[in-house]
């Protein structure tokens, strides 16, 4: 009986330590202004306070045709990078709005990065046509999302980048089209 009590107590202590570590780390990564689905949204922070998108922009990823695309090809212009997946209902719902914004702001490069496999994205693109490039990162994107300030690795996750490649805003969860429109207007101004 004592052994069972000891093991139960040890298990509770380990789980408790893990939960505490998660929330302490989350507090450091979470902006002070928000909670809920848009807790990742940030804007107007000092450059030193934001994680850099330089590693992301240094990546080359395949598109649905298998051609490697360097994200650096769009350096020097504002960008909207949307992490999404075919199995993510909010991701799919926001795609028409992202498409409309890409047409409204031709000087801004919108890129969709799929946290999925190329076959799923190719089949999806046959049904839902978007004019902006869809690149494939697969499940390894979850680590990238976390490095960019999305501690849960949740989808959808959208970044608005200034022309210099710095992060202007992070949006965790489904976009609000009007708010994203205003964010894009700020980076092109």
From TrEMBL:
The keyword Nucleus does not apply. Keywords: Cytochrome c-type biogenesis, Disulfide bond, Periplasm, Redox-active center. GO terms for molecular function: antioxidant activity; disulfide oxidoreductase activity. SUPFAM superfamilies: Thioredoxin-like. Residues 50-189 form the Thioredoxin domain. InterPro entries: AhpC/TSA, Thioredoxin-like_sf, Thioredoxin_CS, Thioredoxin_domain, Thioredoxin_ResA/DsbE_sf. It holds the Pfam family AhpC-TSA. GO terms for cellular component: periplasmic space. Coiled coil: none annotated. Its main location: periplasm. The keyword Nucleus does not apply. It is found in: Periplasm. This is Thioredoxin. One of its GO terms (biological process) is cytochrome complex assembly. It comes from Bordetella genomosp. 5.
């Amino acid at each position: 009986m004592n052994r069972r009590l000891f093991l139960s107590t040890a298990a509770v202590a380990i789980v408790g330590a893990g939960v505490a570590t998660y929330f302490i780390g989350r507090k450091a990564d979470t902006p002070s202004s928000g909670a809920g689905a848009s807790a990742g949204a940030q804007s107007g922070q000092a450059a030193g306070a934001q994680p850099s998108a330089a590693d992301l922009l240094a990546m080359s990823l395949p598109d649905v045709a298998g051609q490697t695309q360097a994200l650096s090809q769009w350096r020097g212009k504002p960008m909207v990078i949307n992490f999404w997946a075919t199995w993510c209902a909010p991701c799919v719902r926001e795609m028409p709005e992202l498409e409309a914004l890409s047409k409204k702001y031709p000087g801004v490069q919108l890129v969709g990065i799929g946290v999925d496999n190329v076959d799923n994205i190719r089949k999806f693109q046959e049904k839902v046509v978007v004019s902006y490039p869809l690149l494939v990162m697969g499940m390894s994107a979850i680590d990238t999302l976390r490095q960019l300030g999305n501690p849960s690795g949740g989808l959808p996750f959208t970044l608005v980048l200034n022309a210099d490649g710095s992060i202007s805003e992070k949006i965790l969860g489904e976009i609000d089209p009007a708010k994203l429109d205003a964010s894009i207007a700020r980076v092109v101004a």
